[in-house]
Amino acid sequence: MSVNSLSDQELVKGYILGNSNCFEELLFRHKDKIYAFIVSKVRSLDLAEDLFHDTLIKVINSLKKGKYNEEGKFISWVMRIAHNLIIDHFRKISKQKNIKPNNDFDIFDIIENGEMSQEQRVIQKQIHRDLNKIIDQLPNDQKEVVKLRYFEDMSFKKISDLTGVSINTSLGRMRYALINIRRLSKKYNIDLQLF
């Protein structure tokens, strides 16, 4: 039976059981509606693209962890995830704009003058060296997507176009790359957090 004849519920079950073609079909059916919804709320194509990809990552992770509630429609569930990510984004922006100086707090206390101390530069260089060592140990497909996303600042759509794989595959590779980076940083006792 072809995946395009299955219902959303059947596709979700198929994907959870390991058939990635099922997620491809879900994405094909609903991507335009999800993307249009996000664009209508944020009114920025670049931001919408980032939030769209964040939504897909959250959907994939939730499905893999068994956090999907079958009582509702799949598309409604995905739209709620997108809506919540949009709200989170605007809350974060709002918090950044609402910081005002008062007698106890001065905004200039937290604004950097653009220059790092010598110690900060040394720590940052070490983190970059450690991170590059870890990335070099990733499988080639994961290494490629990490470098394109974080060092070339490409969207997942551009990555999928460039590498000739689906967006879902690119997202999956990124997910596994991040899992492996965390695992390797623990294995080698490397702290990748700067301050």
Describe this structure in words.
With about 200 residues, the chain is mainly α. The chain has two domains: about 5-95, Orthogonal Bundle (Rna Polymerase Sigma Factor, Chain: A); about 120-185, Arc Repressor Mutant, subunit A. It has eight helices and no strands. Helix 3 packs across helix 4 (about 75-95) and helix 6 packs across helix 8. It is globular and about 60 Å long. About 15% of the residues are buried.
* Cα-to-Cα separation, first versus last residue: 53 Å
Question: How helical, in percent, are the residues?
Answer: 55-70%
Report the CATH superfamily of the largest domain.
Answer: RNA polymerase sigma factor, region 2, helix turn helix motif
Round the mean pLDDT to the nearest integer and report it: 82
Output the number of helix runs. Answer: 8
**Main sheet makeup:** none
Query: What is the 3D form?
Result: globular
Name of the CATH first level of the largest domain? Mainly Alpha
Sequence of secondary-structure elements: HHHHHHHH
